[in-house]
Specification:
By secondary structure, this protein is mainly alpha-helical. Helix content is 78%, strand content 0%.
């Protein structure tokens, strides 16, 4: 008897954050040296960390561990919002990119909290 298991690629918060990380990566590649060295590295790390923590949590075996990493991803999402705002205010990214990135980031609180809720209610341990 085979169970119907959820795969990582079916998790909305993971899909959104992974696509967003790749989108931002391509923007950061165009930064000048100073921008990359200061804000670009921080932004790339924080935005990559969202999907990475969701993936790590997904691979853990108990719900307490899983939820801990999902909460880390929430923190990385908030940090990314801060870096993106700074990029926009400092005129490093344009308004179109800023609006798209913030729109996608603003989807994540609900998605991550849904993942936490699902994990909390569906897993026994």
């Amino acid at each position: 008897m085979e169970g119907n298991y959820l795969s990582l690629n079916q998790v909305n918060s993971y899909k959104i954050s992974l696509n967003l990380a790749n989108y931002v990566w391509n923007i950061v590649l165009k930064f000048n040296y100073f921008e990359k060295d200061t804000i670009g590295k921080q932004l790339a790390r924080s935005i990559d960390s969202i999907s990475a923590n969701i993936a790590e949590g997904f691979g853990r075996y108990n719900k307490k561990d899983k939820i801990k990493f999902y909460r880390y991803s929430f923190g990385s999402m908030k940090e990314s919002q801060d870096w993106i705002y700074k990029c926009f205010v400092r005129k490093i990214i344009n308004e179109v990119d800023y609006n798209y990135i913030m729109e996608e980031l603003n989807k994540l609180p609900k998605e991550i909290n849904s993942l936490i809720y699902y994990t909390n209610t569906k897993l026994k341990f």
